[in-house]
Amino acid sequence: MSQTDHRMDRSVLIFSLWGVLGFLGLGLFLEGMQRDLWSVSAGGVALIVLAFVAHIIVNGVYDTGFSQGEAALGIGAYGLLGLVFVFSAIGGTMTMADYYAGLTLFGVLAAGFLAYLFTRHGLRGAFSRFHIKPMDKREERL
Amino acid sequence: MIWLPLYGLFYAIATLYWARIATRANGDYQTYFSAGHALAPWMSVLVIAGASLSGWALLAGSAEIGRNGFGLPALMQAGIALALPGVLFFKRIWLLGQRLRLSSLTELLRAYWGSEFLAAFSAVVAVIFAVAFAGLQLRALSGLAADLSGGMVSREIASVLLGLILVSYVVIGGMRAVGALGTVQAVLAASAVVVLAAFALVDAGGFAALNAGLARLAADPATAGRFLVAGVIQFTAGIGREAAAGHEGTALASLSFAMALMGVQASPMIMKVVLSTASPRGFAAGQTWVMAGAFGALVAFCMATVGAVALIDPAHGLGGLLAGLSPWFSAWLFIGLLAGVQLMAGLALLAAGEALVRHLYKPWFHSTLSRRDTVTLVRVAVGLGLLASLLMQALTPVALTLLASLALPLAFQLSIPLLGMTWLRWMTPPAVVTGVGFGIAGVLLTEPFGIAVLSFFGLDLPWGRNPWTIHSAAWGMAANLAVTLLVSAFTQRRGFGEEGQEARRFLFGLLGGNPRVRALRSTAWSVTLAWLFLALGPGLIFGNYAFADAEGHWVLGMPPIWGWSLMLWVAGVVLVWFLSYKMELASPVLVDVPAYEPRPKLPRRQGEAERERRRIALITLAIGFSLAVIAALSFGQA
Fold first, then answer.
1. ipTM of the complex
2. Nearest chain A residue to B27, by CA
3. Which tens digit of pLDDT belongs to each residue from B466-504?
4. In chain A, how many domains are there?
5. Helical H segments across chain A, by residue range
6. Do the beta carbons of residue B197 and residue B296 sit within 8 Å?
7. Cross-chain Cβ contact B187/A16 below 8 Å
8. Nearest by CB to A20, which of B21, B38, B188?
């Protein structure tokens, strides 16, 4: 099987996972907020976490990590939803159940993201993923 | 209502993403038709199961149960009925395709049987699937989209939008896009079926409440027949001529409907996926665990649940259920349905476009057409096929329905040539060609399309649709099989062409037979016939009463015929496993298949002959059209 076919197989799996678990999780999360039921929203968060876990397993099977596009999309969506949450909280339109549901989502995702980085790259390695060294320091190592 | 357009946008972006990825992998046109025969086995398994079952099951299957109840148990055995032909054909057809380096059913029929008639017929079947069968489902989906949008989008606009999404990825990405995106679509569609059944159960107040509602219907003499199979057969003149006692759902109606379903697996679109698959390793697992097991369960339980909810309260059919959900859920479920229907429609359009251009137009009229131009023309044909479908959806929905109902029974007639190619070596080319011709006549004479056409020309048949409560697929097959047997008996000396002979030598040399399998042959026949008798045949009568006590109470807490169907679905999965693995009908063959090298021939100049063929085709068309008009004017009815 060619490298292209290999990449396509992985992408098909990722699309399928997020198309089902991600969107269903989002739906449950919103349903919980609409009905003021934290437990339903937490069920949605659990599905989203399950999608992440499945994504990491697929990455493991195909011996790869998150692609740049996936990372950008994930971090972008996280940031956008975070902004919506912060503005809604400031606007005072949220109930306590909404508030806890939001905190659960962002808290669990942030904790999960850090746990992923630390387990995959180690403490120092995880820091290095974001630490951009100045050009002269890089040249010193050469 | 922001969620439906938003999710629709996500879906459209995903399809275009896959179209782009696929076209880059294709090198634009080099592997457009068959994805370089590199479709992963697990993908082909999901695409075949999704295209065969998902969209149809939810749209048509649940509506049928919602309208007429459980009187047609073949619906609930769809997973097994579809797996059986797959077990029988897929491995051997794949081997033949590899040996002869062919990538579609039309090519295989031409190479093996040496018949242009069979090639043309398979192309016609592909077109009917693409334009009418898929068009009918897209039309139902467009109506659903219009309802969900609260009237913001009309059915016609929804049709066009859904059609544009569909045609974009098929035209750009070809088989690779259809295969890769089709896998995602199959997963989405299957998940949507499960979630919809869960919502239906919640809506009904749980499984016990659902069955309590069904029990109330069963206690009412006016609706009690919806939970019974109406006898083995009823000798009526058919729908539109004479109503059956109770309802049309007899045991033979179930058996013959299951035959129609089997037509999907013999259709050019499913064979396209089989022949584009990289290896036969997935066929056994695919037919056993995915088609019969997982998708079979979706049909036997989830589709039946959605239908049962609609049976109790018709307002809670598919549309009513979706409208009653939160907008994010109804939007996601709609996308799941859309994915299921577009998977089948995309595949059918590609198979039809390829059959028309690459397998009919090119060899008959324009053999010098380059590969790039062939792909371009196929893309145009795909677009035109969709346009025809959209126009029929909007302007002639009745004709669309009549044409769509021909797809399955006509495709089932291809089972005989496939049986001859893979198993029954004594069938001869003249017998198979004549048999299929009679099969087509049998179907047309018992389908509303044929009856309406004959009536237009002034010939009123004394029967209607499904005479004797038997589906046209079975009438066609009876004629097909009888003629094939008879003509084969008289034409045994007629030989095959060079490629046909090679295919027979190769297949029967490679799969000559293993003593262990031969010892199990009688067991296999016995259990298969027993299952067919009990699950689809006259044995269904037992299901009316098997799980009811003397007072008529339901022992399982559900309609006895539903319980019977679920029990026989489990038995069916075991049967498919036995046939696939123990009888080695679909088990993997781990041999390298070298390409067959035909004897070198002197190239012939085709230009003059092709010009002559074009002229004859045009004259034939003109004369045919004129004769039809004259006949209609002379004998036709207003």
1. 0.87
2. A4
3. 999 999 999 999 999 999 999 999 998 777 888 888 888
4. 1
5. 3-17, 23-35, 38-61, 68-91, 96-128, 135-141
6. no
7. yes
8. B188
